[in-house]
Amino acid sequence: xxxxxxxxxxxxxxxxxxxxxxxxxxxxxxxxxxxxxxxxxxxxxxxxxxxxxxxxxxxxxxxxxxxxxxxxxxxxxxxxxx
Length: 82
Description:
Blueprint: E1 2-10, H1 17-28, E2 41-47, H2 52-67, E3 73-81
Antiparallel strand pairs: 1-2, 1-3
């Protein structure tokens, strides 16, 4: 059993209205040292697989078919032994 940790972010060329709003709100709260806020998704799931490579393949397929919009988003996958 493995745990897949997936971080999904908008591609740099895609506008991030949530990140922009959060960045402006932080600025209004006095956090002027914070900039370029981007908001993404974090997914953690258990994967029953025979090897780390197989777990990575299954997690990648899940991202490509459902979890991430590959036109607008990038994703990174980290596999840990459970």
